[in-house]
Amino acid sequence: EVELVESGGGLVQPGGSLRLSCGGSGFTFSKYWMHWVRQGPEKGLVWVSRINSDGSSISYADSVKGRFTISRDNAKNTLYLQMNSLRAEDTAVYYCAREHYDSRSNWFDPWGQGTLVTVSS
Amino acid sequence: SYELTQPPSVSVSPGQTASITCSGDKLGDKYAYWYQQKPGQSPVLVIYQDNKRPSGIPERFSGSNSGNTATLTISGTQAMDEADYYCQTWDSSTVVFGGGTKLTVL
Lengths: 121, 106
Hints:
The complex is a heterodimer. Chain A is mostly beta strands. Chain A contains no helices and eleven strands. In chain A, strands 2, 4, 5, 6, 9, 10 and 11 form a seven-stranded mixed β-sheet that branches. Chain A has a four-stranded antiparallel β-sheet with strand order 1-3-8-7, with no helix packed on it. In chain A, strand 9 (92-101) and strand 10 (106-111) form a beta hairpin. The mean pLDDT of chain A is 97. Chain B is built from no helices and nine strands. Chain A binds chain B through residues 35, 37, 44-47, 50, 59, 95, 97, 104-114, and chain B through 31, 33, 35, 37, 41-45, 48-49, 54, 86, 88, 90, 93-100.
């Protein structure tokens, strides 16, 4: 069974840091691009960042650029999101998602169960 | 930046057909994807490439995409279909989500 499991969320003060992890199993992790998507309280889905299969190509949403760093360790089948200079507006459930693909297009499947990040003093 | 617009809420009676729209400039020229999210759960893909169903998704879920509008249709809606639904597309390699639609089955 293909599965993604996030960890590392918690309560952090404004200006603080947190590192999220996402472990993949049931598939060849090193072959897939991976993404982070977040969802604020009672809000919709917002894309955060993505990394290609070998980590050589990365992109970020403007709202987190310069503060968040995505990375991966294919030997450990794990995706990371280092979050620095956290703000109240970063409070959200953070999901990792695999970018599934075929010859025509790409989509997100599956998603992890999410990890809650709360930024508050 | 590219935007996708969904109605905040849609209501449907059990057994009836629910239609959820997603609007964007020339959306029909792109692929549309739909995700279902039940309370306290993570999103689940229900439609990909406009109208394809992943394995395990009931046949009552279907999709279409033309012009500026993609539509998710649920035929014979069941109580278990009550959830938030999000459309998604790609614009110049950028991921774009719609704001989500809360489907109420009453």
